[in-house]
Amino acid sequence: MNNLTRALKFPTARRDPESGYTLHGRRYDDPYAWMERLDAPETQAWIATQEAVTHSVLRAIPEREGLRAAVTRSASYARLSPPIPAGPHGRAFLWQADARDDKLKFMLQRGPEAPLETVLDPNTWASGEALVFAVPSPDGTRVAFGKAVGGTHAAVIHVVDVETGQLLPDRPRGTGHSSLAWRPDASGFFYAACPEPGEVPTGDEAHWNAIYEHRLGSGAPARRIFGDDHVKEYWCSVKLSECRRFAVLFKWDYVHANSVYLLRLADDALVPVAPAMRSLNQVQVIGDSLLVQTDLDAPRGRLCIAPLTAPTEWRTLIPEGADTLQTVTGAGGRLYAVYSHAASHRVRIHAEDGTCLRDLELPALGSVNRNEGEGIVSGISGAWSSDEVWVHFTSYVQPPSVYRYDYATDRLSPYHVPDAGLDASEYVTDQVWYESPDGTRVSMFIIHRRGLPRDGRQVVRLSGYGGFNISVEPRFSALNAAWLKLGGVLAFANVRGGGEYGRAWHEAACKTRRQNAFNDYIAAARWLVSAGYTVPSKLASRGNSNGGLLVAVAALQAPEAFGAVYCRVPILDMLRFPSFGYLSSAIVEYGSPDDPDEGAYLAGYSPYHNVRADRRYPVMAFVSALNDQAAPPHDPLKMAARLQAEGTQGGPYFLLPLRNSGHGGGTTQTALIEQDVDELSFYCWALGSPLPARHDP
């Protein structure tokens, strides 16, 4: 243990022995429930004193300035999106940021050779304000955008006039605005939102999400056009078809299933496409047909086609294969299918009738698609009626990049490939397979410098997620790049619960099968040691959100396997999670504490309820984003307090509060860099020795 441990003095948290509840005949104590009142003076005082102890350690790391230099260089690269056509004469909009910008800007280009003009520059806003989305009207005269404070959730829609820069007085109803699509004539737009305060019972404010229509300049309240009148946990999204005849409406049961309808804009008729909540579906209108990419009767996905005259009568166009079909984009008269092949992406091009034409060769092993609130979003974009095709690409060693693809020459040409100061040729991305205790083979990516000795002395950071159909795929981050430049090794385990290998892989760790994800992850840690990469004392475990739950459970169940744990914005009290915001929707993933069987299973692994005084737990840091609206910000507080009081054989256990940060972190590049520096500082301190000193330019 680090010698500095002896000097640490954590403030004692008041323990309320009377606090608790009975569930299915069993009593569960909750001695730190008072911390759920984040604004209470007692809670605020305890957070502040914990924060002081944590900062006294992290800011005293001798290597800290070197860590900051490495992260800053890795984060300082220019960003540029493909153009978003809107309006006449080649007018287009795009996202852009210079290497020194704290936030992405939304820009206008009046023609292919015209200079960029700024439409929205959140760098001029208060530091805690974020530009979450921006959607230009079809005629290019206005932009509807979402502004959030202290994070990227709970955005509020505003509308700006492109020519004058003036904000319109329109204030669409509801809260938590998202997923916006304009009417073709730019008279108004559709958007997803939760009801106004007071319109639903107390506690339901984050539920009853629906699609509304707002008409510009109208004093009338927005019209609710789509939603669910019976299941409050469903949420919605909307997009406009390329032909502009339809709004495509989605209703989601978290990421497990959705239903899809078309709103025919000529007469506002609702047309069912996938009305039953049985599968995950994405829909695109192509001429007089519908493309439906679905996992209905195909756990690894298939592409169907249906006539607009009979939109529920699907016919398979691209059948299910060995790889997982994630998305299909119709562009340039062809179909671009993105597959997950062993947790990285492959792109296959098909003719309109489904015939396979060729594979599109990507720059390296990496990712094209990305996960967002509206499920998996394709990294292939373009119009069916245009030959221009854009390909997004990233890897563990290449920042998010954009390429143009020319089908005639089969050539992928760089459009924007930024420089993050990392020479990709110096690193190797290996994929290995190992066995979980039940014999299931699980894949894992390992990234390191070429020529790395397998001497069991490397500092390794293992990460995983294991839930919500979200795949762990090769993606770049400034934190990962800095870790590699400093000599560390990265490992990413594709544990069950993710979407890498289709619906069956996801469902293999849902509800009362969740232990499979934990077993897979612990097995990954042990494999890294047995394969000669590291020893447990040099192995850091890092998880974010559901991944935070994963690493916390793994540390409690197999404390000897890890040297340090960084548990960021997690869910840790698995008997109380449905009471926070819209997390009651997550019972479809975790199961319900109110169900006798599922409740007992949740209690069996819930980190907050499974701290044991006779175990020596590793050094752990619990990170709470105090403005978090996706995970309970009080869970890390309660967990740190309980471990400090009861897990005295191990630790220490730090609390790192993120002020003015939401679930995804700070709203500025500067804030994100500081968070990454804190994380790297924690690893340096907790693993007993600094990372190997490398100071690349």
Automatic annotation (TrEMBL):
The keyword Protease applies. Its EC number is 3.4.21.26. It catalyses: Hydrolysis of Pro-|-Xaa >> Ala-|-Xaa in oligopeptides. Residues 11-416 form the Peptidase S9A N-terminal domain. Residues 475-688 form the Peptidase S9 prolyl oligopeptidase catalytic domain. GO terms for molecular function: oligopeptidase activity; serine-type endopeptidase activity. One of its GO terms (cellular component) is cytosol. Gene3D superfamilies: alpha/beta hydrolase (3.40.50.1820), Prolyl oligopeptidase, N-terminal domain (2.130.10.120). Keywords: Hydrolase, Protease, Serine protease. The keyword Transit peptide does not apply. One of its GO terms (biological process) is proteolysis. It holds the Pfam family Peptidase_S9_N. InterPro entries: AB_hydrolase_fold, Pept_S9_AS, Pept_S9A_N, Peptidase_S9_cat, Peptidase_S9A, Prolyl_oligopep/macrocyclase. Belongs to the peptidase S9A family. This is prolyl oligopeptidase. The lineage of its organism: Bacteria, Pseudomonadati, Myxococcota, Myxococcia, Myxococcales.
